[in-house]
Automatic annotation (TrEMBL):
Lineage of the organism: Bacteria, Pseudomonadati, Pseudomonadota, Gammaproteobacteria, Chromatiales
Protein name according to UniProt: 16S rRNA (cytosine(967)-C(5))-methyltransferase
GO MF annotations, alphabetized: RNA binding; rRNA (cytosine-C5-)-methyltransferase activity
Annotated catalytic residues: 378
Native source species: Spiribacter vilamensis
Residues engaged in binding S-adenosyl-L-methionine: 258-264, 280, 306, 325
Amino acid sequence: MPAKSSTDPRAAAVEVLLAVLGRGRSLDRALAEHAPMDADGRDVGLCRAIAYGVLRHHRRLGAIRDRFLRTRLRDRDQDMALLLEIGFFQLVAMDVPAHAAVSETVAVARQRGKPWAAKLINAVLRRFQRDGDGCLAAVDADPAQRDSVPDWLLNRLRADWPAQWPELLAAQNDRAPMTLRVNQRRVSLTDYQHRLAAAGIAAAPLPGFDAALVLQTPVNVEALPGFDAGDCSVQDAVAQLAAPLLDAADHHRVLDACAAPGGKSAHLLERSRPSLLALDSDAARLQRVSETLDRLGLEGECRAADATLADQWWDGRPFDRILIDAPCSGTGVIRRHPDIKWLRRDADIARLADEQRRLLEALWPLLAVGGRLVYCTCSIIRAENESVVAAFVGDHADDVRAIPPGLSVGQSTGYGQQILTGEAGVDGFYYACLEKR
Ligand SMILES: C[S@@+](CC[C@H](N)C(=O)[O-])C[C@H]1O[C@@H](n2cnc3c(N)ncnc32)[C@H](O)[C@@H]1O
Protein backbone atom coordinates (compact mmCIF):
# COMPACT_ATOMS: atom_id res chain seq x y z
CA MET A 1 0.00 0.00 0.00
CA PRO A 2 1.29 3.49 -0.74
CA ALA A 3 1.94 5.84 2.17
CA LYS A 4 -1.20 7.69 3.31
CA SER A 5 0.14 11.00 2.12
CA SER A 6 1.37 9.79 -1.28
CA THR A 7 2.65 12.68 -3.33
CA ASP A 8 1.75 10.83 -6.54
CA PRO A 9 -1.54 12.46 -7.56
CA ARG A 10 -2.97 9.32 -9.17
CA ALA A 11 -2.04 7.11 -6.22
CA ALA A 12 -3.59 9.67 -3.86
CA ALA A 13 -6.71 9.81 -6.05
CA VAL A 14 -7.14 6.03 -5.65
CA GLU A 15 -7.12 6.52 -1.86
CA VAL A 16 -9.61 9.37 -2.09
CA LEU A 17 -11.97 7.32 -4.28
CA LEU A 18 -11.68 4.24 -2.04
CA ALA A 19 -12.54 6.42 0.95
CA VAL A 20 -15.65 7.85 -0.76
CA LEU A 21 -16.94 4.89 -2.72
CA GLY A 22 -15.73 2.13 -0.41
CA ARG A 23 -16.05 3.66 3.03
CA GLY A 24 -18.73 6.29 2.50
CA ARG A 25 -16.56 9.31 3.38
CA SER A 26 -17.51 12.71 1.98
CA LEU A 27 -15.26 13.90 -0.83
CA ASP A 28 -14.16 16.96 1.19
CA ARG A 29 -13.09 14.76 4.08
CA ALA A 30 -11.41 12.19 1.83
CA LEU A 31 -9.43 14.94 0.09
CA ALA A 32 -8.43 16.42 3.44
CA GLU A 33 -7.22 12.99 4.55
CA HIS A 34 -5.54 11.76 1.39
CA ALA A 35 -4.77 14.50 -1.14
CA PRO A 36 -1.06 15.29 -1.21
CA MET A 37 -0.80 18.35 0.98
CA ASP A 38 2.92 18.96 0.88
CA ALA A 39 3.54 18.43 -2.82
CA ASP A 40 3.66 21.39 -5.20
CA GLY A 41 0.37 23.00 -6.15
CA ARG A 42 0.11 21.21 -9.46
CA ASP A 43 0.11 17.78 -7.93
CA VAL A 44 -2.52 18.68 -5.37
CA GLY A 45 -4.61 20.06 -8.21
CA LEU A 46 -4.25 16.94 -10.32
CA CYS A 47 -5.37 14.60 -7.52
CA ARG A 48 -8.37 16.84 -6.86
CA ALA A 49 -9.25 17.13 -10.56
CA ILE A 50 -9.08 13.35 -10.99
CA ALA A 51 -11.14 12.65 -7.86
CA TYR A 52 -13.85 15.16 -8.87
CA GLY A 53 -13.86 13.96 -12.46
CA VAL A 54 -14.09 10.27 -11.65
CA LEU A 55 -16.91 10.88 -9.17
CA ARG A 56 -18.77 13.01 -11.72
CA HIS A 57 -18.47 10.28 -14.35
CA HIS A 58 -18.19 7.19 -12.17
CA ARG A 59 -21.03 5.21 -13.72
CA ARG A 60 -19.93 5.99 -17.27
CA LEU A 61 -16.31 5.10 -16.56
CA GLY A 62 -17.39 1.89 -14.81
CA ALA A 63 -19.54 0.93 -17.80
CA ILE A 64 -16.55 1.45 -20.12
CA ARG A 65 -14.41 -0.70 -17.83
CA ASP A 66 -16.97 -3.49 -17.73
CA ARG A 67 -17.01 -3.62 -21.54
CA PHE A 68 -13.25 -4.18 -21.62
CA LEU A 69 -12.96 -6.76 -18.84
CA ARG A 70 -14.07 -10.35 -19.33
CA THR A 71 -14.62 -10.90 -15.60
CA ARG A 72 -15.36 -8.53 -12.75
CA LEU A 73 -12.45 -7.64 -10.52
CA ARG A 74 -12.63 -9.10 -7.00
CA ASP A 75 -13.76 -6.91 -4.12
CA ARG A 76 -10.23 -6.75 -2.77
CA ASP A 77 -9.12 -5.33 -6.13
CA GLN A 78 -11.54 -2.42 -5.97
CA ASP A 79 -8.47 -0.17 -6.05
CA MET A 80 -7.59 -1.52 -9.51
CA ALA A 81 -11.16 -1.09 -10.74
CA LEU A 82 -10.95 2.58 -9.69
CA LEU A 83 -7.50 2.94 -11.18
CA LEU A 84 -8.96 1.85 -14.52
CA GLU A 85 -11.63 4.56 -14.15
CA ILE A 86 -8.85 7.05 -13.45
CA GLY A 87 -7.10 5.90 -16.62
CA PHE A 88 -10.22 6.22 -18.80
CA PHE A 89 -11.05 9.60 -17.30
CA GLN A 90 -7.66 11.01 -18.22
CA LEU A 91 -7.96 9.70 -21.77
CA VAL A 92 -11.54 10.89 -22.29
CA ALA A 93 -11.66 14.20 -20.47
CA MET A 94 -8.28 15.46 -19.33
CA ASP A 95 -5.66 17.50 -20.95
CA VAL A 96 -2.91 15.02 -20.06
CA PRO A 97 -0.70 13.51 -22.80
CA ALA A 98 -2.09 10.01 -23.45
CA HIS A 99 1.27 8.24 -23.05
CA ALA A 100 1.79 9.85 -19.62
CA ALA A 101 -1.78 9.08 -18.58
CA VAL A 102 -1.27 5.39 -19.40
CA SER A 103 2.23 4.91 -18.02
CA GLU A 104 1.62 6.86 -14.79
CA THR A 105 -1.63 5.01 -14.16
CA VAL A 106 0.01 1.64 -14.76
CA ALA A 107 2.82 2.62 -12.39
CA VAL A 108 0.32 3.03 -9.55
CA ALA A 109 -0.76 -0.61 -9.94
CA ARG A 110 2.87 -1.67 -9.53
CA GLN A 111 3.34 0.62 -6.53
CA ARG A 112 0.36 -1.02 -4.89
CA GLY A 113 2.02 -4.42 -5.31
CA LYS A 114 -0.22 -5.68 -8.11
CA PRO A 115 2.00 -6.32 -11.15
CA TRP A 116 -0.70 -8.55 -12.73
CA ALA A 117 -3.02 -5.54 -12.70
CA ALA A 118 -0.32 -3.29 -14.16
CA LYS A 119 -0.23 -5.53 -17.24
CA LEU A 120 -4.01 -5.70 -17.47
CA ILE A 121 -4.47 -1.93 -17.09
CA ASN A 122 -1.78 -1.23 -19.66
CA ALA A 123 -3.45 -3.57 -22.17
CA VAL A 124 -6.97 -2.23 -21.52
CA LEU A 125 -6.03 1.46 -21.71
CA ARG A 126 -4.12 0.89 -24.95
CA ARG A 127 -7.06 -0.99 -26.46
CA PHE A 128 -9.35 1.85 -25.36
CA GLN A 129 -7.06 4.35 -27.10
CA ARG A 130 -7.36 2.32 -30.33
CA ASP A 131 -11.01 1.20 -30.28
CA GLY A 132 -12.68 3.40 -27.65
CA ASP A 133 -15.11 5.29 -29.89
CA GLY A 134 -17.52 2.42 -30.46
CA CYS A 135 -17.48 1.60 -26.78
CA LEU A 136 -18.22 5.21 -25.82
CA ALA A 137 -21.14 5.39 -28.25
CA ALA A 138 -22.66 2.21 -26.81
CA VAL A 139 -22.19 3.32 -23.21
CA ASP A 140 -23.63 6.78 -23.89
CA ALA A 141 -26.79 5.38 -25.48
CA ASP A 142 -28.06 4.92 -21.91
CA PRO A 143 -28.62 8.30 -20.19
CA ALA A 144 -27.97 6.81 -16.74
CA GLN A 145 -24.50 5.83 -17.96
CA ARG A 146 -23.86 8.88 -20.13
CA ASP A 147 -24.61 11.31 -17.32
CA SER A 148 -23.49 8.99 -14.54
CA VAL A 149 -26.50 9.09 -12.31
CA PRO A 150 -27.81 6.35 -9.99
CA ASP A 151 -31.13 4.81 -11.07
CA TRP A 152 -33.04 6.11 -8.05
CA LEU A 153 -32.04 9.70 -8.73
CA LEU A 154 -32.69 9.42 -12.45
CA ASN A 155 -36.19 8.08 -11.73
CA ARG A 156 -36.95 10.91 -9.31
CA LEU A 157 -35.67 13.63 -11.64
CA ARG A 158 -37.58 12.19 -14.60
CA ALA A 159 -40.78 12.09 -12.57
CA ASP A 160 -40.28 15.54 -11.01
CA TRP A 161 -38.96 17.39 -14.08
CA PRO A 162 -40.28 15.59 -17.18
CA ALA A 163 -39.25 18.41 -19.53
CA GLN A 164 -35.98 19.43 -17.90
CA TRP A 165 -34.32 16.22 -16.67
CA PRO A 166 -31.88 15.69 -19.59
CA GLU A 167 -30.46 19.22 -19.25
CA LEU A 168 -30.48 18.89 -15.50
CA LEU A 169 -28.41 15.69 -15.57
CA ALA A 170 -25.83 17.34 -17.81
CA ALA A 171 -25.70 20.46 -15.60
CA GLN A 172 -24.94 18.30 -12.57
CA ASN A 173 -21.67 17.27 -14.21
CA ASP A 174 -20.57 20.82 -15.03
CA ARG A 175 -18.02 22.58 -12.89
CA ALA A 176 -19.62 25.16 -10.63
CA PRO A 177 -18.26 28.71 -10.71
CA MET A 178 -16.73 30.34 -7.65
CA THR A 179 -19.11 33.11 -6.59
CA LEU A 180 -18.51 35.79 -3.98
CA ARG A 181 -20.94 37.69 -1.82
CA VAL A 182 -19.63 41.20 -1.38
CA ASN A 183 -20.12 42.59 2.12
CA GLN A 184 -21.90 45.76 1.13
CA ARG A 185 -21.73 47.00 4.68
CA ARG A 186 -18.00 47.51 3.96
CA VAL A 187 -17.64 47.97 0.20
CA SER A 188 -19.84 48.42 -2.87
CA LEU A 189 -20.10 45.72 -5.51
CA THR A 190 -18.48 47.92 -8.16
CA ASP A 191 -15.60 48.99 -5.92
CA TYR A 192 -14.90 45.43 -4.94
CA GLN A 193 -15.00 44.33 -8.57
CA HIS A 194 -12.34 46.96 -9.29
CA ARG A 195 -10.22 45.76 -6.38
CA LEU A 196 -10.43 42.21 -7.73
CA ALA A 197 -9.43 43.42 -11.19
CA ALA A 198 -6.44 45.27 -9.69
CA ALA A 199 -5.42 41.96 -8.08
CA GLY A 200 -5.66 40.26 -11.50
CA ILE A 201 -8.95 38.47 -10.70
CA ALA A 202 -11.65 38.83 -13.36
CA ALA A 203 -15.21 38.82 -12.01
CA ALA A 204 -18.66 39.77 -13.26
CA PRO A 205 -21.93 40.65 -11.50
CA LEU A 206 -24.94 38.40 -12.00
CA PRO A 207 -28.19 40.15 -12.99
CA GLY A 208 -30.81 39.77 -10.27
CA PHE A 209 -28.28 39.19 -7.46
CA ASP A 210 -27.26 42.44 -5.83
CA ALA A 211 -24.22 41.20 -3.88
CA ALA A 212 -22.84 38.48 -6.19
CA LEU A 213 -19.65 38.50 -8.25
CA VAL A 214 -18.86 35.41 -10.31
CA LEU A 215 -15.14 34.77 -10.75
CA GLN A 216 -13.92 33.80 -14.19
CA THR A 217 -11.51 31.31 -12.57
CA PRO A 218 -11.62 30.04 -8.99
CA VAL A 219 -8.85 31.25 -6.67
CA ASN A 220 -7.79 30.49 -3.11
CA VAL A 221 -9.58 32.77 -0.65
CA GLU A 222 -6.20 34.10 0.53
CA ALA A 223 -5.88 35.75 -2.88
CA LEU A 224 -9.13 37.72 -2.42
CA PRO A 225 -8.51 41.36 -1.41
CA GLY A 226 -9.77 42.08 2.10
CA PHE A 227 -11.08 38.55 2.68
CA ASP A 228 -9.66 38.35 6.23
CA ALA A 229 -11.02 41.78 7.01
CA GLY A 230 -14.53 40.66 5.98
CA ASP A 231 -14.96 42.35 2.60
CA CYS A 232 -16.39 39.26 0.94
CA SER A 233 -17.42 35.65 1.44
CA VAL A 234 -17.69 32.66 -0.88
CA GLN A 235 -21.33 31.75 -1.48
CA ASP A 236 -23.24 30.60 -4.55
CA ALA A 237 -25.57 33.29 -5.85
CA VAL A 238 -28.73 31.24 -5.30
CA ALA A 239 -27.98 30.97 -1.57
CA GLN A 240 -27.80 34.78 -1.53
CA LEU A 241 -31.56 34.91 -2.13
CA ALA A 242 -32.42 33.77 1.41
CA ALA A 243 -31.55 37.00 3.26
CA PRO A 244 -33.49 39.39 0.96
CA LEU A 245 -36.48 37.03 1.07
CA LEU A 246 -36.38 36.92 4.86
CA ASP A 247 -36.34 40.73 4.84
CA ALA A 248 -35.20 41.19 8.45
CA ALA A 249 -35.28 44.71 9.90
CA ASP A 250 -33.09 46.12 12.69
CA HIS A 251 -35.81 45.74 15.33
CA HIS A 252 -36.59 42.10 14.48
CA ARG A 253 -35.79 38.97 16.44
CA VAL A 254 -34.52 36.43 13.95
CA LEU A 255 -33.96 32.69 14.29
CA ASP A 256 -31.67 30.89 11.86
CA ALA A 257 -32.64 27.38 12.89
CA CYS A 258 -30.11 25.39 10.84
CA ALA A 259 -27.33 27.91 10.65
CA ALA A 260 -24.00 26.18 10.10
CA PRO A 261 -21.62 26.97 8.50
CA GLY A 262 -23.24 30.41 8.66
CA GLY A 263 -23.41 31.79 5.13
CA LYS A 264 -27.04 32.92 5.35
CA SER A 265 -26.78 34.18 8.95
CA ALA A 266 -23.84 36.34 7.92
CA HIS A 267 -25.63 37.67 4.85
CA LEU A 268 -28.72 38.72 6.75
CA LEU A 269 -26.54 40.54 9.31
CA GLU A 270 -24.70 42.30 6.49
CA ARG A 271 -28.05 43.65 5.29
CA SER A 272 -29.53 44.83 8.62
CA ARG A 273 -28.90 44.63 12.37
CA PRO A 274 -31.59 42.36 13.83
CA SER A 275 -31.04 40.36 16.99
CA LEU A 276 -30.05 36.95 15.65
CA LEU A 277 -30.06 33.52 17.25
CA ALA A 278 -28.13 31.03 15.12
CA LEU A 279 -28.82 27.42 16.06
CA ASP A 280 -27.33 24.23 14.79
CA SER A 281 -27.51 20.74 16.20
CA ASP A 282 -23.90 20.07 15.16
CA ALA A 283 -21.66 21.84 17.66
CA ALA A 284 -18.51 21.43 15.54
CA ARG A 285 -20.18 22.97 12.51
CA LEU A 286 -21.64 25.75 14.67
CA GLN A 287 -18.09 26.80 15.54
CA ARG A 288 -17.73 27.83 11.89
CA VAL A 289 -20.70 30.21 12.26
CA SER A 290 -18.91 32.02 15.10
CA GLU A 291 -15.70 32.17 13.08
CA THR A 292 -17.52 33.55 10.04
CA LEU A 293 -19.35 36.21 12.08
CA ASP A 294 -16.06 37.18 13.76
CA ARG A 295 -14.27 37.52 10.44
CA LEU A 296 -17.05 39.71 9.07
CA GLY A 297 -17.30 41.79 12.25
CA LEU A 298 -20.95 40.78 12.79
CA GLU A 299 -22.81 39.93 15.98
CA GLY A 300 -25.21 37.12 16.70
CA GLU A 301 -25.82 34.53 19.37
CA CYS A 302 -24.71 31.03 18.38
CA ARG A 303 -26.14 28.05 20.18
CA ALA A 304 -25.74 24.29 19.68
CA ALA A 305 -29.22 22.80 19.96
CA ASP A 306 -31.76 20.67 18.17
CA ALA A 307 -34.17 23.22 16.74
CA THR A 308 -37.11 20.81 17.10
CA LEU A 309 -36.67 20.71 20.90
CA ALA A 310 -37.71 24.29 21.60
CA ASP A 311 -38.24 23.73 25.32
CA GLN A 312 -34.47 23.23 25.62
CA TRP A 313 -33.42 26.58 24.14
CA TRP A 314 -36.36 28.94 23.50
CA ASP A 315 -36.94 31.83 25.95
CA GLY A 316 -40.62 32.06 25.03
CA ARG A 317 -40.38 35.33 23.07
CA PRO A 318 -41.68 34.94 19.49
CA PHE A 319 -39.43 35.50 16.48
CA ASP A 320 -40.34 37.98 13.74
CA ARG A 321 -38.36 36.02 11.19
CA ILE A 322 -37.39 32.34 11.04
CA LEU A 323 -35.11 30.76 8.47
CA ILE A 324 -35.21 27.00 8.04
CA ASP A 325 -32.40 26.08 5.65
CA ALA A 326 -33.26 22.47 6.17
CA PRO A 327 -30.99 19.43 6.09
CA CYS A 328 -31.63 17.85 2.69
CA SER A 329 -30.31 15.50 0.00
CA GLY A 330 -28.05 18.20 -1.45
CA THR A 331 -29.11 17.16 -4.96
CA GLY A 332 -29.04 20.80 -6.06
CA VAL A 333 -25.32 21.06 -5.36
CA ILE A 334 -24.11 17.83 -6.95
CA ARG A 335 -21.95 19.84 -9.35
CA ARG A 336 -19.97 21.01 -6.30
CA HIS A 337 -20.19 17.70 -4.41
CA PRO A 338 -20.34 14.84 -6.93
CA ASP A 339 -19.94 12.32 -4.09
CA ILE A 340 -23.59 13.04 -3.21
CA LYS A 341 -24.65 10.92 -6.21
CA TRP A 342 -23.01 7.83 -4.73
CA LEU A 343 -23.46 8.43 -1.01
CA ARG A 344 -27.17 9.23 -0.96
CA ARG A 345 -29.83 6.52 -1.16
CA ASP A 346 -33.45 6.72 -2.25
CA ALA A 347 -34.53 5.76 1.28
CA ASP A 348 -32.86 8.95 2.60
CA ILE A 349 -35.47 11.11 0.89
CA ALA A 350 -38.45 9.99 2.99
CA ARG A 351 -36.37 10.28 6.17
CA LEU A 352 -35.26 13.81 5.21
CA ALA A 353 -38.82 14.83 4.32
CA ASP A 354 -39.95 13.71 7.81
CA GLU A 355 -37.18 15.74 9.41
CA GLN A 356 -38.04 18.79 7.28
CA ARG A 357 -41.69 18.54 8.27
CA ARG A 358 -40.72 18.15 11.95
CA LEU A 359 -38.68 21.36 11.76
CA LEU A 360 -41.61 23.26 10.26
CA GLU A 361 -44.06 21.92 12.85
CA ALA A 362 -41.72 22.62 15.76
CA LEU A 363 -40.78 26.16 14.73
CA TRP A 364 -44.07 27.53 13.40
CA PRO A 365 -45.46 28.12 16.94
CA LEU A 366 -42.37 30.25 17.66
CA LEU A 367 -43.20 32.72 14.88
CA ALA A 368 -44.94 35.98 15.82
CA VAL A 369 -48.29 36.80 14.22
CA GLY A 370 -47.46 38.80 11.11
CA GLY A 371 -44.00 37.19 11.08
CA ARG A 372 -42.33 35.43 8.18
CA LEU A 373 -40.74 32.00 7.86
CA VAL A 374 -38.50 31.13 4.91
CA TYR A 375 -38.11 27.43 4.20
CA CYS A 376 -35.36 26.44 1.77
CA THR A 377 -33.22 23.50 0.72
CA CYS A 378 -30.44 22.88 -1.77
CA SER A 379 -32.46 19.95 -3.11
CA ILE A 380 -34.16 19.58 -6.48
CA ILE A 381 -36.43 16.75 -5.34
CA ARG A 382 -40.09 17.68 -4.95
CA ALA A 383 -40.60 15.32 -2.01
CA GLU A 384 -38.26 17.52 0.08
CA ASN A 385 -39.58 20.81 -1.18
CA GLU A 386 -43.03 21.56 -2.57
CA SER A 387 -44.51 18.35 -1.11
CA VAL A 388 -43.31 19.20 2.40
CA VAL A 389 -44.55 22.78 2.18
CA ALA A 390 -47.88 21.89 0.52
CA ALA A 391 -48.66 19.30 3.22
CA PHE A 392 -47.71 21.78 5.94
CA VAL A 393 -49.80 24.61 4.49
CA GLY A 394 -52.70 22.18 4.00
CA ASP A 395 -52.62 21.23 7.69
CA HIS A 396 -52.31 24.84 8.94
CA ALA A 397 -54.73 26.60 6.63
CA ASP A 398 -56.06 28.66 9.57
CA ASP A 399 -52.87 30.64 10.16
CA VAL A 400 -50.41 30.02 7.30
CA ARG A 401 -50.33 32.23 4.22
CA ALA A 402 -47.85 31.27 1.49
CA ILE A 403 -46.33 34.31 -0.26
CA PRO A 404 -44.94 33.77 -3.77
CA PRO A 405 -41.17 34.21 -3.33
CA GLY A 406 -41.04 36.31 -6.53
CA LEU A 407 -37.43 35.37 -7.25
CA SER A 408 -35.78 36.42 -10.47
CA VAL A 409 -34.78 32.81 -11.24
CA GLY A 410 -36.59 29.49 -11.11
CA GLN A 411 -40.18 28.49 -11.55
CA SER A 412 -43.21 28.45 -9.31
CA THR A 413 -44.07 24.99 -8.03
CA GLY A 414 -47.29 26.10 -6.35
CA TYR A 415 -46.41 27.51 -2.92
CA GLY A 416 -42.68 27.83 -3.50
CA GLN A 417 -40.15 28.42 -6.22
CA GLN A 418 -37.67 25.86 -7.55
CA ILE A 419 -34.39 26.78 -9.17
CA LEU A 420 -32.90 23.88 -11.12
CA THR A 421 -29.14 23.35 -11.18
CA GLY A 422 -27.45 25.40 -13.87
CA GLU A 423 -30.38 27.82 -14.39
CA ALA A 424 -28.79 31.29 -14.69
CA GLY A 425 -25.54 29.53 -13.81
CA VAL A 426 -26.53 28.96 -10.17
CA ASP A 427 -26.96 25.91 -7.94
CA GLY A 428 -30.26 24.08 -7.54
CA PHE A 429 -32.38 25.44 -4.68
CA TYR A 430 -35.95 25.67 -3.39
CA TYR A 431 -37.54 28.59 -1.54
CA ALA A 432 -40.92 29.01 0.12
CA CYS A 433 -42.05 31.97 2.14
CA LEU A 434 -44.79 31.57 4.78
CA GLU A 435 -46.45 34.32 6.81
CA LYS A 436 -48.43 33.90 10.00
CA ARG A 437 -51.93 35.32 9.90
C1 LIG B 1 -28.16 23.10 4.73
S1 LIG B 1 -27.21 23.16 6.17
C2 LIG B 1 -27.37 24.85 6.64
C3 LIG B 1 -26.49 25.80 5.86
C4 LIG B 1 -26.48 27.20 6.45
N1 LIG B 1 -27.81 27.75 6.59
C5 LIG B 1 -25.65 28.18 5.66
O1 LIG B 1 -26.19 28.97 4.88
O2 LIG B 1 -24.42 28.20 5.82
C6 LIG B 1 -28.28 22.36 7.32
C7 LIG B 1 -27.79 22.41 8.75
O3 LIG B 1 -28.86 21.93 9.58
C8 LIG B 1 -28.30 21.35 10.73
N2 LIG B 1 -29.38 20.58 11.38
C9 LIG B 1 -29.91 19.41 10.99
N3 LIG B 1 -30.93 19.07 11.81
C10 LIG B 1 -31.04 20.06 12.72
C11 LIG B 1 -31.90 20.29 13.84
N4 LIG B 1 -32.86 19.42 14.17
N5 LIG B 1 -31.71 21.41 14.56
C12 LIG B 1 -30.75 22.29 14.25
N6 LIG B 1 -29.91 22.12 13.21
C13 LIG B 1 -30.06 21.02 12.45
C14 LIG B 1 -27.13 20.57 10.18
O4 LIG B 1 -26.17 20.31 11.18
C15 LIG B 1 -26.60 21.50 9.09
O5 LIG B 1 -25.56 22.29 9.57
